Protein: Hydrogenase maturation factor HypA
Amino acid sequence: MHELAIAESVVDAVGERVGGARVTRVLVEVGRLTCVEPDALRFCFEACARGTALEGAALEIVEVSARATCRTCGARDAEVDARVPLCACGSADLELVAGDRLLVQAVEVA
Ligand SMILES: [Zn+2]
Structure:
């Protein structure tokens, strides 16, 4: 369950940034290729946030589909299935352009 490690690093990183201010909302972008389960992440986030500046903060998750450019047929920005990362032409020689990371996009403090 890597959601716990991710939740911990988000809580740590945001906590350091806000310098003690109380956080009310955190918006994260979750790429489908990260295989993060939004419900599990939310659960872990709440647990990790307890006793920190992020306690009680709302975690908003925006799921981002995986997109890639195909090096074989040149298709650009093609949507890729996270479990079967293949281009429609059958090639697996893809350059990912989105969906492979998790980013904190916005934080609101009280
Ligand atoms: Zn292709």
